[in-house]
Amino acid sequence: MRPKPDLPPEIEDLRDARWRREGMGQVDNAFEAERFIDAVGFAACLTDCRRPGPSLYVAVCGRRDAVMPRNVQKDEEASRTWLLKDELIARGNVYYAKLSRGKAMFLAPRMIPYFHAVWGVRKSEEPRRLSRKAQAILGVLRREWEMSTSDLRVDAGITDRAAFTKALDELQAAMIVVPSQVFYQPKFTYIWTLGVGRFPDALRRRVSRATAVREIARCFLACAGMTIPGELARVTGLSRSDAGLGNRALVKEGFATMPAYGTYCVLPPADAPPPA
């Protein structure tokens, strides 16, 4: 086992600024949240400093050491992040769903084709790759377009709540179904719709898998400044081999260097001034 390398202080400082981990840049409203997601390309929703990568919760806290408390219902910052998430879903300017490994993530529109190329399921592949329950839910949504959770479960004929949730998560991970609104009265419910209705061009754009993993790696590395072994895979849900392929493609084209095994750094632009 190779020891996990520490990040240099200048990289941590860079991430503080770009991932809004400092008080001066913390996210306060939906507009700022959308700007943050657009800048980083993709971000987790409610992860804290114990997980790598940009996070809306950490950006709301504006602290590098933000930790999600056990009792999130009474935590002001967690509640603010949760409500911001609801507002972002309703605005529909960024993609939100449970993606790979069940992680709730936001995607900037420009990154949707690349994530879809890796994890998306095309319509021709649905009978082979989707479970019967997932196909039943999808059939209802293609007829009705939007439905609340309870109505969708009834119309899909899935009586077991756990089985329904599992099938719905499967459709989110396949980048087919997304939440479009959240209501708390008269009872808490999500409204579900087809992702292609909100982001038709992005989800219909064809991208090769090799291009997709390279551009996902570029997006992370450009914002993070450096990536250490396993970090890109943990942040995005890519396999370790796909993450390595993406990073090595960036080295090959001259965008990055590999100073050590599994460690990649962004090359400074050719016109950048020399360090003092």
Strand order of the largest sheet: 1-3-2
Distance between the termini: 36 Å
Largest sheet: 3 strands, antiparallel
Write down the secondary-structure element order: HHEHHEEHHHEHHEEHHHEHHEE
Q: Provide mean pLDDT, rounded.
A: 92
Work out the helix count.
14
Oligomer: single chain
Shape: globular
Evaluate the radius of gyration.
Answer: 20 Å
CATH domain class name of the domain at 121-174 and 176-206: Mainly Alpha
The total count of strands amounts to 9
CATH topology of the domain at 121-174 and 176-206: Arc Repressor Mutant, subunit A
Structural class: alpha+beta
The low-confidence runs, each spanning 5 or more residues with pLDDT under 50, are 270-276
The residue fraction in helices comes out at: 40-55%
The CATH level-2 architecture of the domain at 121-174 and 176-206 is identified as Orthogonal Bundle
Looking at CATH, the homologous superfamily of the domain at 121-174 and 176-206 is: Winged helix-like DNA-binding domain superfamily/Winged helix DNA-binding domain
What proportion strand?
5-15%
Key features?
276 residues; Arc Repressor Mutant, subunit A; three-stranded antiparallel sheet; disordered C terminus
Describe the SSE topology.
Layout: H1 9-18, H2 30-40, E1 42-44, H3 56-61, H4 76-91, E2 95-98, E3 104-107, H5 112-119, H6 126-129, H7 132-144, E4 146-148, H8 149-156, H9 161-173, E5 177-183, E6 189-194, H10 195-198, H11 200-204, H12 209-224, E7 226-227, H13 231-236, H14 240-252, E8 256-260, E9 263-266
Antiparallel strand pairs: 1-3, 2-3, 4-6, 5-6, 7-9, 8-9
